[in-house]
Each structure stands twice: as structure tokens, then as C-alpha cells.
Amino acid sequence: MIDHILLSEETIAKRLDVLAKEIDVAYAGKELLAVGILKGSVFFLTDLLKRLQVPVAVDFLQVRSYAGTSSSGNINIVHDLSMDILDKDVLLFEDVIDSGLTLRKILALLGSRKPRSLRIAALLKKKLPENRDIPVDFLGFEIGPEFVVGYGLDLDEKYRNLPHVAVWDPAR
After folding, report:
1. Rounded distance, CA 33 to CA 83, Å?
2. Rounded Cα distance, 108 and 93, in Å
3. Which of 4, 72, 83, 123 could form a disulfide with 67 if both were Cys (CB 3.0 to 4.6 A apart)?
4. pTM above the 0.85 mark?
5. What number of CA atoms fall less than 13 Å from residue 65's CA on the CB side?
6. Tens digits of per-residue pLDDT, 63-116?
7. Please, how many CA atoms are within 13 Å of residue 32, restricted to the half-sphere of its CB?
8. Is 98 among the catalytic positions?
9. Mind listing the pLDDT tens digit for each residue in 48-63?
């Protein structure tokens, strides 16, 4: 069950305003290719992109790595990009960086396709030793290790539609 709201809709919106300004400065004079990791990043990606001034193209990559509240350890690419990213400025949108296992595989895959630049925008990054080495260029919030749902984040495909991020407690 949902234990408590961690990040309100208003808190998220204010942070996205700040991130949009940072991204506009970083990509001024460039064309940006935003790559969303399906399905979790959709809310974050669309809400943030609506705030940007730089020209943006959008593509999606879908991977599967979670079963319930924990990573399965297996990473499967379900849907690959439809655009060539060679010599493009790519900004990868992730909902939450947990162990970093999935993100490392995605970064290696996209890096091998030789984009001009490859940066990360993440709504959330958990404070975990396993992901300390993953540089996030545009970070919404750093959170603890708790399992969260809402604003695109799910538990077995449920709760994505919540307008906020909430802590899930299976004991409640």
C-alpha cells in the first residue's frame, strides 16, 4: 500500500521548471534528441519537454528489468529506437536510477551508436552505493532506497497515473 507522498505534484512541477532552464542553456544553439525509457519516463519526459525552448525530436527505447518491487537481473530490449543517433546530441530520460544495471546497459548500447553527446536526465536517483558512479546531468531529486510509485513509476504496471511520487510499503 501507499505509505506516504514523497514528492507532491507541485514540488515536481517546480523542479521541472528549473531543469528545463538548465537544459535550455546546455543545448542552446543545438538540436536535441530526447530518448525516453519506456514506460516509466513518459510523465517526466513529456512534462519537461513542454517547458523547453530548444528544438527537440523524441524517440523511445523500451526495456524490461523489473518483476514486482525488485530487479529481475535480466535486461531485455523490448523496443529499440526508430531514429539513427549518429552525431546527434542525445538526452536520455530515465524515471529512477536504482542499481544502475539497466542504465549501464542502455548507455553502452547508445554509446556504441556514436552520438555527438549522450547525457542523462533522471527524475529520481536513489542514494545507493551501486549507482554512485553514474553521472546524472539533469537530476530531479535524490531519494532514499525505498520503493516508490506514481508519476510514471509503477508496481506491476499499477500506480503510474498518480500525479505525485509516493512510497510503497508492502507491510501496510
Report:
1. 9
2. 15
3. 72
4. yes
5. 22
6. 877 555 555 556 788 999 999 999 999 999 999 999 888 899 899 999 999 999
7. 24
8. yes
9. 999 999 999 999 999 8
Looking at this protein, which amino acid is placed at residue 137?
D
φ, ψ dihedrals at 21, nearest 5°? -65, -40
Catalytic hit among 3, 98, 154, 156: 98
- Distance spanning both ends of the chain, measured CA to CA: 5
Enter the C-alpha cell of residue 44: 517526466
What residue has cell string 532514499?
Answer: 144
Q: Which domains does the chain have, with CATH numbers?
A: 10-143 (3.40.50.2020)
Could you write out the DSSP letters of every residue in 53-90?
Answer: -S-EEEEEEEEEEEETTEEEEEEEEEE--SS--TT-EE
Phi, psi of 135, deg, nearest 5: -80, 125
